[in-house]
Design brief:
- The complex is a heterodimer of chains A (238) and B (300).
- Helices cover 39% and strands 27% of the residues of chain A.
- Chain A has 238 residues and is of the alpha/beta class.
- In chain A, α3 (96-103) packs parallel to α6 (140-153).
- The radius of gyration of chain A is 17 Å and the shape is globular.
- The relative contact order of chain A is 0.18.
- With 300 residues, chain B is mainly alpha-helical.
- Chain B has a domain at 21-227.
- Chain B contains 11 helices and 4 strands, in the order ααααβββααααβααα.
- Chain B has helices spanning 2-32, 39-57, 65-91, 99-121, 147-169, 171-181, 183-187, 193-218, 227-241, 246-266, 272-286; strands at residues 126-127, 136-140, 143-146, 221-222.
- In chain B, strands 1-4 form a two-stranded antiparallel sheet. Chain B has a two-stranded antiparallel sheet with strand order 2-3.
- In chain B, a hairpin with a 2-residue loop joins β2 and β3 (143-146).
- In chain B, α2 crosses α3, α6 packs across α8 (193-218) and α10 packs across α11 (272-286).
- Chain B is globular, with a radius of gyration of 19 Å.
- The chains are: A alpha/beta (238), B mainly alpha (300).
């Protein structure tokens, strides 16, 4: 059994009186792609925001064996828990290059950063062409590529991707998921994926959890869930 | 014609100072969407810091560049400290609060400092120590260029250039710009957002400190309420230029200084303050987001 990277026990998130996440437990092991699927408002993004300490939560979260509770957001990043947020979180007022440099904000190893930036350009050649342009001029797909590259430059021990397919053309979605799989297979990157696009997510994941109105209702291997009747009915159009 | 050029020179002088102070408003607005009304009092305290430190250091006994630079450093340090303290004690506890609450707090801090100033320093005006001597440099027919004029313009430009460099060519500046765009995205990069906000207060307050020394030299009468009007006008300048925009604050400041000088010169000095606010109304009617401002669509 490989090492446990992230363990979440009884995670709860409240927005005032509204309970968005009602006590969920899940874990991610080294080298896995795990996805949380569910419809809009199921609490997927709230879960990721909580794990990144962007919002308050209760429950036990441990990352690489250390508790994460109460740690400021920028320190969570330092530990290697990196999130590509919903809507990509690109700094539209900055250039593409500056966005990438911000991904490496906490790092001092300049020569490695340069090398890794070049590796990102191998994955996404279009970013290189647009390096000095304002990130606001990029298309949605390019912004998602930038967001993923930027997260990679943060040297993630676990990469959390929030809806990487959102608002993108099907062809680009395929491309993004190919890259997610590649990062996991070739570089051994552990990934926690949140998706509404259940079919894509399940096909690319080792394991998955189904989230409904703040609770986990199903969990299992990606392929098993993909072929299970309950999931097919609810999320894959029969 | 010569008259006109003289007025332009005076207007630029005044405008450079408005611009320095306007930058402080606009920078804080950029990261917090807050009008930091207490900024004017930071400026006031900068002026008083020189008044009181002069009692110990006697800088005005040896007027010259050394004394001038020391004064600037003192004012910058005191203002930074005051700005930091205000942010830490008054604004940071309200980070998640509705904007209006923070705005009211800002007004409260401003009034608190004004009247504490009156209680501590006394309400009567004091004389700002002349740490630098004004010299008649060039007499060009009617145009008279004094060394203070050049000092004010030169020092303001240098301070703005330094700010530009810090914001656009350093890692810290990049982080500040990231925070301006989105605080949560910035923290996902590992940026300590609170630290960057503190730095913005340090930068803005430092400029107010520089402004305080320059104004003190040119108009040496200082009192605890001295920040009120100049602060209000600098704020108007920042809004004119488009609040949140650094070039906007500079252009707004210069525009404000120039037009004020022209009104005094060619209309009547009675209207100088009416103009400041009249100008604001006119520009906001035609360009509601200011000269350099962008309409921002509310993010969902």
């Amino acid at each position: 059994m490989s090492k446990e990277i992230l363990s979440v026990q009884d995670l709860k998130v409240n927005y005032g009186p509204i309970e968005a996440v009602k006590g969920i437990s899940f874990d991610v092991y080294e080298g896995e792609v795990v996805s949380l699927i569910g419809s809009n408002g199921a609490g997927k993004s709230s879960t990721l925001r909580a794990l990144s300490s962007l919002i308050a939560y209760s429950g036990q979260v441990s990352f690489l064996g250390e508790p994460l509770n109460g740690i400021a957001a920028h320190k969570v990043v330092k530990k290697g828990l990196i999130q590509t947020p919903e809507g990509r979180g690109i700094f539209l007022n900055l250039s593409v290059r500056e966005n990438l440099e911000l991904g490496a904000f906490l790092r001092k190893d300049r020569s490695n950063i340069k090398k890794e930036m070049d590796q990102c350009f191998d994955l996404f050649p279009r970013l290189k062409e647009r390096l000095n342009r304002s990130a606001g001029t990029l298309s949605g797909g390019e912004q998602q590529m930038l967001a993923i590259s930027r997260s990679l430059l943060s040297k993630p021990k676990l990469l959390m991707l929030d809806e990487p397919s959102l608002g993108l053309a099907p062809k680009i979605v395929l491309q993004i998921f190919e890259i997610i799989k590649k990062l996991n297979k070739e570089d051994g990157l552990s990934i926690l994926l949140v998706e509404q696009n259940a079919a894509m997510a399940l096909k690319s994941s080792h394991r998955a959890y189904v989230l409904e109105t703040g609770k986990i209702t199903l969990s299992g291997k990606g392929e098993e869930l993909f072929s299970s009747d309950a999931v097919r009915k609810a999320y894959l159009g029969g | 014609m010569e008259d006109f050029l003289q007025h332009v020179l005076n207007g630029l002088n005044l405008g450079a100072i408005y611009a320095l102070i306007a930058l402080g408003y606009t920078m804080v607005y950029g990261v917090l969407q807050l009008i930091n009304f207490a900024h004017a009092e930071v400026y006031m305290l900068g002026a008083f810091s020189i008044y009181y430190s002069n009692k110990w250091l006697h800088l005005s006994d040896h007027p010259g560049w050394t004394s001038f630079v020391i004064s600037i450093l003192i004012a910058v340090m005191v203002c930074s400290l005051v700005g930091l303290t205000i942010e830490r004690l008054a604004y940071r506890p309200l980070r998640g609060a509705p904007r209006l609450n923070v705005l009211i707090t800002a007004i409260g801090v401003s009034l608190f400092l004004q009247f504490s100033g009156q209680a501590v320093f006394g309400a009567d005006p004091k004389l700002f120590p002349q740490v630098l001597q004004d010299k008649d440099l060039i007499q060009f027919g009617q145009i008279q260029i004094r060394s203070f004029d050049l000092t004010i313009i030169g020092v303001s430009l240098a301070a703005m250039a330094l700010l530009h460099f810090l914001i656009h060519h350093t890692k810290m500046g990049m982080a500040i710009r990231a925070v301006r765009h989105s605080r949560s995205s910035a923290s996902l990069m590992g940026i300590n957002v609170d630290l960057m906000i503190s730095l913005v207060f340090v930068l803005g307050s430092s400029l107010a400190g520089v402004g305080a020394v320059l104004v003190g030299l040119k108009y040496p009468k200082i009192d605890p309420l001295m920040g009120m009007l100049i602060g209000l006008k600098a704020f108007v300048a920042a809004v004119l230029g488009g609040i949140g925009s650094l070039p906007g604050a500079v252009v707004g400041g210069l525009l404000m200084g120039l037009s004020e000088e022209m009104v005094v010169a060619y209309l009547s000095s009675t209207y100088r303050d009416a103009l400041a606010f009249g100008l604001l109304i006119v520009i906001l009617v035609f360009r509601p987001s200011g000269l350099f401002g962008k309409y921002e669509v509310e993010k969902v």
